[in-house]
Each structure stands twice: as structure tokens, then as C-alpha cells.
Amino acid sequence: MKRLVSVRGILMGILGAGLLLLWCAGGFMAMAESPDEDLRDALFKDATYAMETAKQANADLYSPEAFEAGMKLYKDAEKKFNSQGNIEDIRKKLDQSVGFFNKAMEGLKLSNVVMKKAQAARDDALKAEADKYAAQEWKKAEQLFEKAAQILERGNSKKAGVKSAEAEELYRAAELNAIKVNYLKGAWSLIEEAEDIGAEKYAPKTLAKARSLAKSSDKLLTEDRYDTDKARQEAQQAKYEASHAIFLTDKIKELRANVNPFNDDEVMEEDMLLEAERPLHRIAGTLEMVARFDTGSSAPTTEMVKAIEELKEEDSQLGQELIDKNAEISALSEQITLMEKRLDVSSAEEEALKKKINQLKIRREKITRIDNSFTRDEGNALLDNQNIVISLYGLNFASGRSNIGSENFGLLTKVIKAFKEFPGCKIIIEGHTDSRGGDERNHRLSEERAEAVKQYLLANTGISPSRIHAVGYGESRPVANNEIEEGRAKNRRIDVVIMPASL
Predict the structure, then answer these.
(1) Which of these, 298, 476, 496, 474, lies nearest to 388 by C-alpha position?
(2) pTM for the complete prediction?
(3) Structural domain includes residue 193
């Protein structure tokens, strides 16, 4: 029995070896359940790398015919491998696929020259989700782009350039339409809803404002699709005004139905409701909030009451902190008094402590004096670690300009007086803007304005140029809400940082 088992084992081993030889010779292993993964990895390694490299570089888009030929050979090789075909045939197809993938990469280099502008336009359109928001233009642009790539691949770069330019134009149009849809679709939808319920009759002023804002946003995007800050704000405001018109229409209809059904003076009713909202708008602006009345006055009133309560709480905390600080100062004074009694008055350590306390007291007095020299509209001064920061909200520049007008001379004179409080100090002039306008433009404008203030101060003081520097931060450091005019006004400022020479 053992001998029979042994013989059977030997026969099975011979059979297995024979099947393996048949595989290597290109035969078929009908009994095998799955291909050898190690063998596959070894065979397909180079072709897979070439394919993935081409895919990542979008060679399928820019050299479609070569890439498609490479993929066909690659898939044929996969089929043969899975059906356990001849190894040499598989290897040959994979080598050919590598050649086509490499050819596609070479074609990509040429397309980066001939179709560079169209590629950039396509990327921008994708960022704007043109394939979603401007599907028709996107589809046409894609067809033209693919056609240009095929023509270029066949060697006609001139004709490919013409098709590429047509694709670029369509991509740009799709991008712009997508941006407009993304920003303005909600606004126009609400305007249409307002029109459907009769806002033209009951709230014409508010509806007209919504239309005007939507058109202005559309125009801004057409003029500069990449400077979207103001366009976005106006689109949001258009949505609010349209929603507001819907609310006012419903409210006026309700008033007419319940109070005076024969009154035909709807415009007067709209004016009355709008007038009732104005005081709340002013309060909201002071609180740096945006009051929305498209659902009535209850929600914005609640928000404002909450904000006022938070300010009261903050004021209470500040008051307590002031009490605590005064208590610390009082305790410190008592300690100093005790030290004076216990130690020799001529002690160098005690003299240094007295000097430090006296300097701190003098500095507080100086900062208070500087801060009190400015009105609320002009600016304020505060201590930031060891530095004094003067925020000049009242330093006004003409739109897009950096020259200092005579109306600002008085304010800058107060700044010059502040320098005299700290002899030998170093000064940094920081320029800031609101978020309206492009990032690069705002940064450049903030630098120019800071430099203008620096030059004015140098011209009107004896300060050495080495002690004063100018820097622009553009819109990157807001101190207030850019969504409302009051906040934007505070963000359009010059900060003067005084760095005292000593404590």
C-alpha cells in the first residue's frame, strides 16, 4: 500500500512538472485556476509603468491615438495572459504598448507648445466646474480640443493650432458662464420667483435693486472673472434683495387684505416697511453685522440683542480685568513701600525696580495721551507687547490711488507728535486694504500707500530713513467684516507701529 502511494506521488510530480513545461512553452493549463501573479508582475512591469505615467500626464487627452493604440496592445496582452497564451507573444505586445505610450508622451511635449493656451483655458474651465454649470459649451470645447490633438498627432501643427484656438475660445466662454451660473443662479431664480408673485407691483424698489445688483455682478464677472470678491458680494446682496422683495410682497398683500383692502398705494406701503428697517440697519452696521430682513425683523433683532449682550459681557470682563490690574498695581506699590522700609534706599536692585515701575507708568501715560489725541473716526492707539500700534482708520486715499491729500495732513501731524513721545524709536508703516479688488492689486496698492506715508513722514520730520520702514499686507489682515461698508472702511487703513528704543 505504501509503495502504491509513493508511485502515485511520483507520477503526480512528473505530471505537474510537465504542465509547468507546457506553460513555459506557450501551451495551455486548463487545470490551473488562476495565472501566476509573480509572473504577471514581471511581464507587465515596464508596460504598466509606461501606461500609468502617460495617464498621469494626461497623454490620453493630448495624444489620443498613440495612447489608444498602446492601451489596445496592453489589453490584448492581458487577455492572452489570462487565457495562458504564448509568453513571447505577450511580451511582444507589451513591448509594442510601451512604444506607443512613449510616443504619446513625446506627442504631449509638442502639444504643450502648440496647444498651451487651450490647455490653460481647459484647466481654468474645470476649476470653475464648467463641465457641470456650462455643459453645452464644455462639450463643444472638448470635441474641438480632441480634434486638435488628433490633427497635431498626425503632423499638421498649423491646422491643429487653429482648432486649438477655437477650443480655447469655447473653454473661456464655458468658464465665464459657469462662474456666472455658480454666483448668480440663485439670485436670478429668486428674482424670477419675486416677479411671479407680483413684486413688480408691491415691492418695485426692492425688486429693482435686486435686478441692478445681479446685473452689476454679471458685468463685473465679464470684465474680470478672476476678481470675484466684489461680484460675489453683489450676487449675495442681489439674492437678499430678491428674497426681501418676496417678503415685502407677501407682507403688503397681507396688510392690504386685513387692514385696508381698498388702498392702492402699494409703493407707499413698501416705503413704510423699508423706513422701519433703516434704524436696525444702522445699529447692525455699528455692530459690524449684516441685517437681513427677508424673513422679517425678528431674526436680525435677536442677533443684534445677542451681540449687544456679548459686548456687555465683554465690557464687564474688561472692567473686572481692570479692577484686577489695579489691585495688582496696588499690591505692587505696597510691596515697594515695604521694600523701601526694609532695604537700603541706595540699593541698586531697588533703584532698578523703581526705575522700571516708573517707566511702565510713563509708558501708560504716553499711550493714553496718544490715543486721546485721535477721534473715534480718525483711529486709536494700543499696546501690543512692547510696541505701540496706531490704527489710522481716518487716513483716506482716493480709490486705487496712493497719493496723500491735504485733508490728511492734520491726522499725520498727530502721528508725528506721537513719535516725539518715544525718542529714538523705530517705526513700521503697514498698509492694509479691504477685500475689494484682486489680491495682487490690493497688495501692490497697500505697499504704495505705506510707502507714501513713509515718504511724507520723512519729509516732515528729522527721522533717519534707517529708522522707518514700509510694508504692505493687502487684504490679508482684516480687523472687521468685509461684507459691510463699515467693516471695509476699517480694513482700509494704515497701521503705524512704534517700537520704543527702551522700556
Answers:
(1) 496
(2) 0.50
(3) yes
Amino acid at 210: A
Dist. CA 314–CA 475, nearest whole Å: 27
CB neighbour list of residue 327: distance below 8 Å, 6 or more residues apart: none
**CATH of residue 490:** 3.30.1330.60
Beta strands at 493-499 and 387-392: parallel, antiparallel or unpaired: antiparallel
Q: Report how many domains make up the chain.
A: 3
Is 326 among the domain residues? no
Cβ atoms of residues 430 and 473 within 8 Å: yes
Distances (CA, A) of 54 to 39, 41, 92, 185, 356: 24, 19, 20, 38, 70
Confidence of residue 350 (pLDDT cuts 50, 70, 90): low
Q: Exposure pattern of 246-265 as b/e (b: 16+ CB <10 Å)?
A: bbbbebbbebbeeeeeeeee
Least confident among 29-33, 147-151, 157-161, 454-458: 29-33
Instruction: Tell me whether residue 172 is in a domain.
Output: no
Give the rounded percent of residues in the chain with a pLDDT score beyond 90: 21
Torsion of Cα atoms, 256 then 257 then 261 then 266, to 10°: 20
pLDDT digits (tens, 9 = 90+) for 310-344: 877 777 677 677 676 666 676 766 776 666 566 55
Domain boundary among 84, 114, 144: 114
The pLDDT of 460-483, averaged and rounded, is: 89
Residue 115 CA from chain centroid, whole number: 29
Of residues 198 and 353, more confidently modeled: 198
Last-in-domain residue among 303, 321, 343: 303
Range of the domain at 41: 34-114
Residue 392 three-state SS = strand
Q: How far is CA 178 from CA 174, 212, 348, in A?
A: 6, 20, 74
- Residue 258 falls inside a structural domain: yes
Looking at the predicted structure, is the pLDDT value of residue 17 above 50? no
